Task: inverse folding
């Protein structure tokens, strides 16, 4: 599903953020990406949804080399990848419904279908009662779920989450993780970047550890 | 690489993804944008209104000058005198030959009696001077009006040459100098108008694209999110372009309303006491084609103003 071959990435004028990263994530996998701050986790995720291009090496999603995609094809790639951003990126002046609906509007769905689908997903996330609330009025955990709902509402093939449990309490972490697991069971490939040891240890999933832009360890911890 | 053959990573297009499937959405977004940035939107509309009003006032002046020029050059006539007084039959034959020259619009025979009468009129109050003068002192003539495209320059010269070749035609008078000068002046007005119009359009395009940039800037976050969830460039741009077209159309309608108002309040009656216009039929309003062009100009400004301001923000 996801393959990286000898990927190097340096930001202009900065030192190398990723060097010689090769890895393979199969369809239906659930993988944690971990490592200290500045190791290059967010950078690696951005490569996957074509927000960045590797300086060298290749990124393949579903057999498609992203370097071969034209600019006008990138939107279609992104429609098959749901992303939960480290800073959520929710629109403060739009309701929860409108925030989640964006993913479907882009696909050209009709208003009524969007309403139904969004409501379903919000229910799955346990925040159906917040459908008309504005994000700044929500708790951190609730905002996180809205971001997740937006990423999952079109049933993406791949779910990418960057530090999704950042400042949540244990109960919330558990719930968010169970949503990931549920999506994974439905067939979505899940990649989660986190440096939360407890989350990783409790889940018994494959872990890829980055340090200073290198893959230093891959742990296959089967349940 | 063929788009359709792209592998599984690319989600196929769906049925409702055409422009019309989304038009309702774009339209709603455009209206929301307009309302949420009401002040900036109104500034844009006002800019377009002002620019179009200036342009249309200029056009109004131009159209009227043109109308006057038309009226005057209608009177440009060639007067052709005969070698010797023709008999009515000979005059008729001559007329046919003159009418055969390309460019002839109208030929009018002025008899000796008529010539004397005209002369009398001109000397009103001093009729005593005319005592003893009989009709045969003044020659009869043809007064010839030309087709529009033969009225000046080389065409006129060519026509006169042809006329002089007609046997029986003697002296030919034509081409009042000031008419030529007026035509030169009109050409000048046309050029100045085109240059000023171009500069005005560029300045307005610049202002409009910058004011629209403000509304785009206010939606930077939204555009970023749209890009990340897979919106195409067109999808992101369309609402702004529709908004631009709306603003342009609104500006055009306002400027035309103002123009009409100005016209009926002041200009319509001005002709009567300014008496620049010999016919004293007042000042003309712009013909429909010009009004349509002004409307089109507004839409153009709005559309390209938005397009220019979007280029920097939408990089997907
Ligand atoms: N836009 C950028 N321009 C220049 N350098 C950048 C940019 N983004 C990240 N970097 C650099 O690249 C390196 C990797 O950053 P990255 O954000 O991928 O780390 P991370 O593992 O996600 O860290 P954290 O756990 O703190 O989120 C860092 O040294 C960072 O300074
Ligand atoms: Mg990060």
Result:
């Amino acid at each position: 599903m996801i393959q990286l071959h000898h990927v190097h990435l340096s930001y202009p004028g900065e030192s190398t953020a990723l060097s010689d990263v090769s890895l393979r994530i199969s369809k239906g996998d659930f993988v944690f990406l971990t490592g200290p701050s500045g190791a290059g986790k967010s950078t690696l995720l951005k490569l996957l949804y074509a927000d960045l291009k590797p300086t060298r090496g290749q990124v393949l999603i579903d057999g498609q080399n992203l370097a071969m995609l034209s600019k006008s094809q990138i939107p279609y790639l992104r429609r098959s990848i749901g992303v939960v951003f480290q800073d959520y990126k929710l629109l403060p002046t739009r309701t929860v419904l409108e925030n989640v609906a964006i993913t479907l509007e882009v696909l050209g769905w009709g208003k009524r279908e969007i309403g139904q689908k969004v409501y379903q997903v919000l229910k799955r996330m346990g925040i159906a009662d917040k459908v008309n609330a504005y994000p700044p009025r929500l708790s951190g955990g609730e905002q996180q779920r809205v971001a997740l709902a937006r990423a999952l509402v079109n049933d993406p093939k791949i779910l990418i989450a960057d530090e999704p449990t950042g400042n949540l309490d244990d109960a919330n972490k558990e719930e968010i993780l169970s949503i990931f697991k549920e999506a994974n069971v439905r067939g979505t490939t899940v990649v989660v970047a986190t440096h939360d040891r407890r989350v990783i240890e409790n889940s018994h999933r494959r872990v890829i550890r980055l340090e200073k832009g290198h893959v230093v360890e891959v742990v296959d911890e089967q349940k | 690489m063929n788009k359709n053959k792209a592998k599984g990573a690319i989600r196929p297009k769906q049925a409702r993804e055409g422009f019309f499937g989304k038009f309702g959405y774009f339209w709603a977004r455009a209206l929301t944008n307009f309302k949420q940035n009401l002040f900036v939107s109104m500034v844009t509309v006002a800019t377009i209104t002002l620019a179009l009003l200036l342009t249309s006032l200029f056009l109004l002046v131009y159209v009227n000058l043109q109308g006057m020029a038309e009226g005057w050059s209608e009177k440009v006539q060639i007067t052709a005198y005969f070698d010797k007084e023709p008999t009515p039959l000979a005059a008729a034959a001559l007329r046919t030959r003159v009418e055969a020259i390309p460019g002839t619009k109208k030929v009018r025979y002025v008899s000796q009696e008529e010539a004397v009468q005209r002369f009398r009129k001109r000397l009103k109050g001093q009729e005593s001077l005319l005592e003893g003068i009989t009709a045969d002192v003044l020659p009869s003539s043809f007064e010839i009006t030309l087709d529009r495209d033969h009225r000046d320059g080389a065409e006129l010269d060519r026509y006169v040459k042809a006329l002089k070749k007609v046997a029986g035609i003697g002296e030919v008078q034509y081409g009042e100098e000031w008419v030529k000068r007026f035509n030169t002046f009109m050409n000048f007005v046309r050029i100045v108008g085109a240059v000023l119009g171009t500069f005005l359009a560029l300045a307005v395009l610049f202002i409009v694209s910058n004011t629209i940039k403000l509304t785009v800037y206010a939606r930077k976050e939204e555009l970023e999110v749209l890009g990340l969830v897979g919106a195409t460039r067109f999808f992101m741009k369309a609402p702004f372009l529709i908004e631009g077209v709306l603003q342009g159309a609104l500006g055009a309608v306002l400027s035309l309303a103002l123009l009409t108002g100005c016209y009926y309040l002041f200009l319509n009656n001005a002709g009567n006491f300014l008496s620049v216009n010999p016919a004293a039929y007042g000042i003309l309003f712009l013909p429909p084609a010009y009004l349509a062009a002004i409307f089109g100009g507004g839409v153009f400004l709005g559309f390209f103003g938005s397009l220019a301001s979007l280029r920097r923000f939408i990089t997907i």
Notes: Residues 77-173 of chain B form a domain with the Alpha-Beta Plaits fold (CATH 3.30.70.3040).
